[in-house]
Automatic annotation (TrEMBL):
Residues 205-306 form the Copper resistance protein D domain. It is found in: Cell membrane. It comes from Paramicrobacterium chengjingii. It is a multi-pass membrane protein. This is CopD family protein. The keyword Disulfide bond does not apply. Its main location: membrane. The chain crosses the membrane at residues 20-45, 57-78, 98-121, 128-150, 170-188, 209-231, 243-263, 284-306. PANTHER family: INNER MEMBRANE PROTEIN YEBZ (PTHR34820). The keyword Cell membrane applies. Keywords: Cell membrane, Membrane, Transmembrane, Transmembrane helix.
Amino acid sequence: MLAHDGELMFATSPITENVALLVQIAHTLATLVFAGVVFCEVLVVRLRSTPRMLRRVRSAAGVAAIVLAPLLVVTQALRVSGRNLVDVVHPVAWVSAVWWQLAASGVLSVVGIAFALVMLAVRRRGGVPVVAGVAAVLAAAAAASVPVLLGHTQSVEPMWLIQIVDIVHLQVAAFWVGGTCALALYYAGVRAGERGGIATEAAHVTVRFSTIALVTVIVLTVAGVALAVLVFDEPEALVSTSYGRILVVKTVLVLCVGVAAGWNRRRLLPLIERQPNDEAAWAALRYAVLIEAALLVVVVVISGLLSDADPHGHSGVDAAAPAALAVPVRS
C-alpha cells in the first residue's frame, strides 16, 4: 500500500490498472456510438424504417455497452481495492469498494440503453412515433452521461458546474462519434438501394446533419474551454501535467475533425445540393465522413486516458473513488 497525505492507499497491479482502463474506454466508446446513432436516427435521418445496417450497428453498440457495464463496475472495484483480476471470484474482497457513483454508472447505462431500444422499436412500429423518438433520445443521452460519474474531474470544484459542462461535452461527443458512423452507414444503405434511396433525400439528410454539427462544434468549443478553465489552476498546467498534454493532443485531433467538417460543408455539400446524382461527390463525402469517424474514435480513446489522469498531477487512487476506501495511518 502507498502512503499519501496521512492515509494508506491501495496499490493496484499494472495488469488490473490496464484492464480496468481498457474496459472503461470500450464501455465509453460503445455508449457514445449507441447514443450518437440514436441521435442521428431520430433527429437527422427522421425515418421510422432506417437502413438495416444502421439498426444492426446501433443494436451491436448498445448490447456491447450493456455487457461491458457490469465489467466496468467489477474492474474498477478491483482496481480501487488493490485486488488482482483473479480476485474476481472472491466478491467479499472487492464488493465493499463499489462506491455509489460506480454502481450508478452501471445501472444508468444498462437501463438507459435498454429503454432507448424499446422506444425505438415502438417508434418503428408506428406507435406514437414522436413521443417514442423523444424518449429514445433522452434515454440515450442519459446513458451517454455515465462517464461524468467517474474520473478525476469529480475532485474539481465547483462540482455541479463542471458536471454540467462535462455532460454537455459528452452529448456533443456522442452526436459526433455516433453520428458520423450513422451517416456513413446511411450512405451505404442508400448506395445499396436498401430503402430505394433517393439521392436528393440523402442530400437533405446530409444538410440536416451538417447544420446540427455546426451548432455542436460551437457548443463543444465553449464546453472544452470552460472545462479547461475549471480544471487547471494555471495555464502552464497544459504542458506541465500529463492531463494537460493529453488534452492538447485531443484538442488538435478535434480541430482536424472540425477542419474536415468545414471542408465538407463549404465544398461538398453545395456541390451535392446542385448535383445530387454526382457519384464522385458522394464518394468524396463518404471517405471524408469515414475519416472523421476514425479520428473521433481516437479522440474517445484519448478521452479515456484523460479520465484516468489526474488534472492536478497528483498520484494515488482515483479521485472519483470515495474517501472511505482510504485507510488512515496509525502512529
